[in-house]
Specification:
There is one protein chain. This protein is mainly beta and 371 residues long. The chain has a single domain (2-370), classed as Porin (Beta Barrel), CATH 2.40.160. The chain has one helix at 2-12, and strands at residues 39-54, 63-79, 82-93, 101-113, 116-122, 148-155, 159-169, 179-193, 197-211, 222-236, 242-255, 267-279, 282-292, 317-332, 335-346, 351-370. The longest helix has 11 residues, at 2-12. The N and C termini lie far apart (58 Å).
């Protein structure tokens, strides 16, 4: 505990830092740029990370992610309507002799009209798909293969919406395993905005389906539903020590109409209240979470009601508070170093947990040829 406090003190002593959330580090996907038409680039994306969790209690065991992923690819913009990326994604954890994930990368982005674009292949996962961490774990950028499928993104003055379907397990006729895919919908509608204040309503839906009609698996169909809404407010304070204050309230739910398997609950809900401040020393936030029988297959596990190692170790009611800190230090253009720290207290078990991480993010483009 004393060592953690000392580390945080050293970080706070640094200057010229700006804050982000952990999900905001995941902005490597580069969208179509109309200034790069007929240009072939070599793009190098990578994240090196050391992320440690010291979780107490039965819900989540402590764990560490330490390693790096790299994503080299060729990027060519055919016109102001079409861009193509081809390359690979390679994830390796430190001290392992092999790569944990080796995947080809293929992503085609088509600008259908001014406010709508569609992505085929590897999806744009920037900003955690716009989902709250209770529904989508930000750490997936250090553990999962890039998502593949089809995605529609709409952005206007009053709405931003994205809809996608991604396949985690594709099947052919007679395959002995089930099809797994995810349907996602997330967005925000703007209620009010001026130079100081903005007020938005988020809406989010995740459907995780395990089934299929052409496989030979004896397993039954199971579909999980997660959804969220709430109110998000932001206040611009100034340009000195404190820059912005955010107050967000989210209500989330869970349904499994096919039965309680495999998690033990067939429905649940929860809510969070978060106050955050963007300062010259980084971003601070205080988050209260309360839940009942809440499950999210892709969500941050510390917020769930069942143990990640044994569903019999459940905690039907959850009540906890978390303090978070995030900073990012720019090194060069498109290269940055980040630090994240988190302290959690569970009111029902009276247990204290914490987590912290260091990250080096590189997103660089190198001009190969202009046609």
């Amino acid at each position: 505990m004393q060592r953690l406090i000392y580390i945080l003190f050293l970080i706070l002593a640094m200057t010229q830092l700006y804050g982000q959330s952990l999900s905001d580090l995941n902005y490597s996907y580069k969208t179509l740029d109309t200034t790069e038409v007929k240009i072939l680039n070599f793009r190098f994306e990578s994240m090196s990370f050391f992320h440690d969790t010291e979780y107490m209690g039965d819900i989540v065991d402590g764990y560490t992610w330490t390693g790096a992923w790299v994503r080299p690819k060729l990027s060519y913009t055919f016109s102001d309507k079409l861009k193509l990326d081809v390359g690979g994604h390679f994830l390796r954890y430190h001290s392992r002799n092999d790569f944990t994930i080796v995947r080809p990368w293929f992503s085609a982005e088509y600008q259908m009209f001014d406010q709508m674009k569609v992505v085929f292949g590897n999806l744009n996962e920037n900003g955690n798909h716009g989902l709250v961490k209770q529904l989508w774990e930000p750490e997936r950028m250090m553990t999962d293969a890039p998502r593949e499928g089809v995605q529609f993104l709409y952005d206007s003055k009053y709405f931003n919406i994205q809809n996608w379907m991604s396949w985690e397990q594709f099947i052919l006729p007679g395959d002995p395993y089930q099809e797994h895919f995810t349907f996602g919908l997330s967005g925000r509608g703007q209620l009010y905005s001026n130079s100081v204040t903005s007020l938005k309503i988020p809406f989010q839906l995740l459907v995780y389906h395990q089934g299929g009609e052409i496989d030979s698996s004896p397993l039954g169909v199971v579909t999980h539903y997660n959804y969220a809404t709430g109110l998000e407010t932001s206040f611009k304070v100034g340009d000195q020590f404190l820059k912005n204050i955010d107050l967000n309230m989210h209500w989330v739910g869970y349904q499994c109409p096919d039965g309680p398997a495999p998690y033990g609950y067939d429905n649940g809900h929860g809510y969070s209240v978060t106050i955050a401040g963007d300062t010259r020393f980084g971003k601070f936030s205080l988050d209260y979470w309360n839940a009942y029988q809440f499950i999210a297959p892709y969500g941050k596990r510390i917020y769930m009601s069942i143990s990640d190692r044994d569903i019999n170790l459940s905690q039907t009611d959850r009540s906890q508070i978390a303090f978070n800190y995030m900073m990012k230090q720019p090194i060069l253009k498109d290269i940055g170093f980040a630090f994240q720290g988190e302290a959690l207290y569970d009111f029902l078990t009276t247990k204290f947990s914490f987590a912290f991480g260091y990250y080096l993010i590189i997103n660089q483009d190198f001009l190969l040829k202009k046609f």
